Amino acid sequence: MTDHKLLVRRAAVLGAGVMGAQIAAHLTAAGIPVDLYDLPSDDKPRSKIAAGAVANLLKLKPAPLASKDLAAFITPRNFDDDLAQLEHCDFIIEAIVERMDIKKSLYEKIGPHIHADAFFVTNTSGLSITELADVVPDALKDRFCGVHFFNPPRYMHLVELIPHPGTDGKVLDLLEDFLTRNLGKGVVRCRDTANFIANRVGVFTMWSTMHHAQRMGLGFDTVDALTGPAIGRPKSATFRLADVVGLDTMANVIRTMDAKLTDDPWHDLFKAPDWLGKLIEAGALGQKAGAGVFRKEGKEIKVFDPETGDYRATDYSLRDEVKAILAIKDPGEKLAELAKCEYPETEFLWAIHRDLFHYCAYHLAEIAESAREIDLAMRWGYGWNFGPFEQWQAAGWKRVADLIQADIDADKTGVKAHLPKWVSEVDGAHGPGGSWSAAEGEVSPRPDLPVYQRQYQPVRLIGEASHTGQTVHETESIRLWTLHDDVLIASLKSKMGVIDTGVVEGLNEALDKAEAGFEGLVIWQPQGPFSAGANLKAAADAIQRGDYDSVRALVKGFQEANLRMRYAGIPSVAAVRGLALGGGLELAMHASRRVAHLESYMGLVEAGVGLLPAGGGLATLALQANADTAAGDTWPLMEKRYKQVAMGQVAGSAMEAKDMGYLRPEDLIVLHEHELLHAAHGVIRSLTSAGYRPPLPDRTIPAAGDVGIATMKMLLVNMLEGHFISDHDFEIGSRIATALCGGEIDRGTPVDERWLHHLEREHFLELCAMPKTQERVGHMLKTGKPLRN
Amino acid sequence: MSDAYIVSAVRTPVARAFKGGFRNVRPDDLLAHALKHALAEVPGLDPGRVEDVIVGCAMPEAEQGMNVARIGALLAGLPDSVPGVTVNRFCSSGLQTIAMAADRIRLGEADVMIAAGTETMTMVPMMGHKVAMNPKVFDDNENVAIAYGMGITAEKVAQKWDVSRADQDEFAYRSHQKAIAAIDGGEFTEIRPYTVTSRVPDPKTGQVREIETVIDTDEGPRRDTSPEALGKLRTVFDAKGSVTAATSSQMSDGAGALVLVSERVVKELNLKPLAVFRGFSVAGVPAEIMGIGPIEAIPKVLKQTGVSKDDLDWIELNEAFAAQSLAVMRTVELDPDKVNPLGGAIALGHPLGATGAILAAKLVHGLQRRQQRYGMVTMCIGTGMGAAGIFERV
Known about the structure:
Chain A is an alpha/beta fold.
């Protein structure tokens, strides 16, 4: 075992089920080849089951593989013939069926083949790690623990790390480092208690929601309207989530809680509602069965009504009074209003929050090191905006505690459990020094593992201290700031990183300041996506007024700022995560380098709103296609680039973005989103240390010209005749071709960026003037969805 | 004027493009194989007497560029003195070569000619490796159909000639059924098997391992297809159309070759000819409905040769698409029982420029086996043409 870092040269995943195969897929994204094991087949090939699981990875949505090419790095294996191969693996994770006897016999079988420095862990979600450790061969015990991924493992940030009493502490530190740095996960250390943390709280919440919904007689559609984004949780809310998970699985989990948590004060209430049993009996198991709580009938989605035992039309509307309460900004005031219980909906919402807070406070000492673990687990494993303790604290710690206590005193909670004493002894669960540990009776600071030094701006919980750097310059659109004095950071302030005149001005200001006094410039958004694109609304308003001059000025200003960044005397880095679309991507394309989180979704999607990329995106693609094929034929790459823009394709990962040319070969992909800023600083420093020189300006390339345009039009005309695109799509596609190919000029004529920018701009403006483009823009602004006209 | 006698006609099996048995076999090697067998089957013929080797190829570039005819002839062991020329009229190239070879004999300019065709769609894609459209195509609407893919033209034919999706599916299904029956009945007597040698690294021994595979059967026909399965497929060329991948010809690799001689050589060597080539016609139609080309070419060739439609016993109508095949059959009133009795390109594949030679070989052997007299090979041609040639068993 190395002291400072777990080096995983090769990994093995035992069990090629849904979780096992997807964990293998994610390991390949981290650059680790994987042996994927499952049972042998009687006929050849013997590893058919594992091979089938690999093939299935290519079909699953959302895609478990960051790039289809990665499937080749998962080798199908079987438990009978290939165990000797385990000796090459440094990290072995078991994800087979949740049966103690079967796991025991597998552990005995593989024990002799695992090398002395390898880590052996289990992905169990239901069994006790301590009991499993009893059946782990002695030689492996100190390197054994639970590493619990959430489904789907590529996309869910949470991994729970669960030791047994014999796990070496060093092993846990190395694993936490590896899971964070290499796999990009958010690690939460858990105690070895039933369902660990996220599922313990998550399933309790699900049960409590069902219980109170039934009690208040609320329809499942109403419950989903109340328990989704309205209270800071994902759109799948409660019952859509249950359908996705599977109602049979739900019932099983509730049964497990019933069997395992016999000492839990809420135990007597852990009964699945009657309707759940009836639906399961009828085969309505949820999404996988085509029907569950919800059922799709033709185009309509209907909801089960336990009163009638039949499905009815959904109704997600809420009464105005309830909507008004949900709209209250101040969390404390909102919760107090809910606690008045004036309506069934508010009584329900108060009850599920009260029970959640009560349950978490009551069990904190038993299930988690501190309140931090519970809140992070719910954010990362269940997609909640805030964890339970944060919500409580935001609403006023003492005020909420009193409300809960009042309900306990009035016997409204239905359980014989009091609020633990510590609740009244603290001002909140989180503070500048850390989070409350009920087990230790003191504040527990954040872990100080070296890997967390790489997270310059980690997730901070409500109440925790956050370090937001030194502001250098700030406007309504942009904040220029610095963390380490040497690098200037520019952060767009709108939620979606929208680019407008203010941003362009801010970018120029940033370049002025960076050239004057910094080593380089990083563009990074503290929250949300890198950038969803240009501000359509501002452009649409100007077009509405017939003010094309201001649109032209806006476009030209953006092009020039982008060029300025490209040729600036200091290096720039776009640190991308999430969406980088349209103008947002063009901004990133003009930085000296890009560092991108694996989950970056990049595309020039302007065609969807009837426009074309006019921030230098097409010019950049043409220049790059030429540079990338200097020794050969540029055309095949030009055609590929053309198709991806004309069809508005978006890369499904940073790896795919490399293939699409939106990331360059020298750009870096980062697995952990909170390490982006660290990586960006590193790139600036490495460029500076090598004596940064900007690219030479005014380079010319031979245009694809009239023949290029005609050949692209050939693709379009076939799609038009085949009714795959509309006349306006043809119009847009022709103009994209024209701008990309340098216009209707002789093939091979030298053109430069300025000429290509001129074409982008003029065709952009001409499209703006077309009613069908205006319809597209209007539709996008109104509905958020593209219009095909 | 001497008649042009076909004294030998052979072909390779037709393999599926990209994943088939010929995926690593070059078009010049396929051609050399066909040429060698065609010549070997003419007893007593000195190869040095071949006046010219005319080879059809629809995309004569890359592996099949550089005058593939001459290269194939040399690889086949023909003496340096025998020349070679590659001709291109897209899908009729392999029939065009027979017409050109026959003409030299009929004019008395040559006694022995070889007509052939070769194409690997695996190595050279349809339209070639580099497409570069003439901008003038889009100047007005008149010539825009030059830019149409073949599938779009098939859709236009289906629409204009009112060929239903169900009829196309049924036609495609029957093509497969007929081809499978022909394979099982041993009807493809013109096939000369090809042994593919592939070389792969063997990490265990550190040696290069050679694997020999004999390809002796056409790979296209599917035993597992059904009208229901075909009915479920989505259209590929037109979102609102009727043409599917299964009602289009398959992309394939293959070659065919025929030896044609004058009456003098027949007598001199005491040969038993398979057939006489009676005549050939080609005609132009609008590019956007290229599939109906045979509608113009068939009456033209019948008139020219004086053979009546009813005299025809066997018609090889290249199944570029079910839609155009049915439109042609209905318009010219061809007897469906006489058309493609052994299945067509939808089942058996369509290696573009080789198809004419392959269909001719299939036809003349068929006429011999069934003791029938007149046969015709006809096809539509991209950018709007049709070709037809008449063969008579002797």
